Amino acid sequence: MTRVLSVASECAPLVKTGGLADVVGALPAALAPLGVEMRTLLPGYPAVTAKAKGGKVVVRFDDLFGGKATVKAVTAAGLELLVLDAPHLFDRPGSIYLNDEGLDWSDNPERFAALSYAAAFIAINGADGWKPDVVHGHDWQAGFVPEYLHGLSDGESDPPFVFTIHNIAFHGTTSGDRLETLKLDGWRFTANHYEFWGQICAIKAGLTGAAKINTVSQTYAEELMTPQFGMGMEGVLQARKTDLTGIVNGIDLDVWNPETDSEIARYKTAKGKVKAKKALRAEFGLPDSDGPLCVLVSRLTSQKGIDLLIDALPNLLSRGGQLALLGSGDTDLEVALLELASKHDGVGVKIGYDEALSHRIIAGGDAILVPSRFEPCGLTQLYGLRYGTVPVVALTGGLADTVINANPAAMAMDAATGVQFSPVTADAFGNALLRLCDLFEEPNAWAKLQRNAMKQPVGWETSAAAYSDLYAQVLKG
User: Fold this and answer.
1) Backbone angles phi, psi at 135, to 5 degrees
2) How far apart are CA 6 and CA 41, in angstroms?
3) pLDDT in tens, 288-315
4) pLDDT of residue 338
């Protein structure tokens, strides 16, 4: 049995802002059959403490970055959790990262340094007799773990640290004058450790201190070593390329199951898909049409290529295609999409997020659009594959690794599962939408695409085995 402490700022179903939470929530169950016992260290936000009640205090801190704190061991939502109960850092309303003005909480450096410090403390001292063999940190919020391991340990038998990059766009940087406040070793404030252009950088601390680094697709791992995608960390990653790998995410096959999903009336056949599509059109106020009903569930940002969608959409509409969209994000993009919906009866837009509605959308759509400029892995294309909702994706990151383009060779070999486009421009996306319409107008080709999509393995089995192997590698040294 390998004991792993997973350290993350969010974890589904307790608290979620994006795909990071889904991965952190899914890994323990996926790894258990492989002999991995994983416990997840999570901040005690109100959303977490409300669902993870009771438990046993296993660690106490008299002063953890400005106040008393405890770590409680508790079981909730099928997960073995270690909840960092630090009210002065985490007991506040609203977003877990942002204040009421939409800006980062000013003490985010201390908040997530505390998470990393607690992880390092548990790694060295254990928690009520439980001590991890490996510490697995996720994104910048866990980046300081190796620095605190260095500061707290006696240098003997420290558990190795594995670091997963879910999105390198977020660095966790702060002013260099916070060294003492963050309890960091000033002698290590160098380019070889956590200094980045004169600032303290949490993600760089993780990248330089980890025994192994992975990200959530092999293509994204390769992209990260280029200036276009590395976000200033490409040099660090190039130096560590022998320790960098990609492990694509999976999805929960029980939650996303077209045969049992209560949100879509348990459709099991092509007729059921037709019913789900009819219901979705009614819900979005869309008329009947002979073209494909495309769907999109996403944050509305330029990273997600939403501006490209707006420019490319006329190609889809000109062929009788339609769009049903659910999302929220940049105000300008929200306004532009709502204006499109007001002008075109083939466009339906709902601003916000609704988990149940997202199931109905993906179940009822013919195709799911993912035009991201960069996408470490992506999950919505995996949901689409599972439901026979053909993905149309940019050729980047995990989208490139999980969708097989419907070119003539792939179609002839009965291997294609979707449509890819490159470069990531509005023109290329518009052409991809025309190709989608061509395929949709050929019933045999379209049925083949749907069948192939639904046969793709999108669960955690293969990826869990890869994580188990990664832990084994770091334990060997």
Assistant:
1) -110, 130
2) 6
3) 999 999 999 999 999 999 999 999 999 9
4) 98
Helices vs strands, H then E, count in the chain = 19, 18
CA distance 406 to 345: 29
pTM summary value = 0.92
Burial class (CB in 10 A: 0-12, 13-18, 19+), 97: middle
Instruction: Look at residue 158 in the predicted model and tell me its pLDDT.
Output: 85
Question: Letter for the amino acid at 450?
Answer: Q
**Residue 187 DSSP label:** G
All residue ranges of the chain with pLDDT < 70 are 155-156, 262-271
Residues 70 and 28 sit within 8 Å (Cβ to Cβ): no
- Is the CA virtual torsion 286, 288, 289, 295 positive or negative? positive
- Helix, strand, coil in percent for the chain, rounding step 5: 45, 20, 35
Beta strand pairing call for 79-85 and 134-138: unpaired
* CB distance 437 to 319 below 8 Å: yes
**Strands across the sheet with 79-85, in order?**
56-61, 69-76, 79-85, 36-43, 2-7, 134-138, 161-165, 212-215, 244-246
Residues 6+ apart with CB under 8 A from 255: none
How many whole angstroms separate alpha carbon 341 and alpha carbon 349? 6
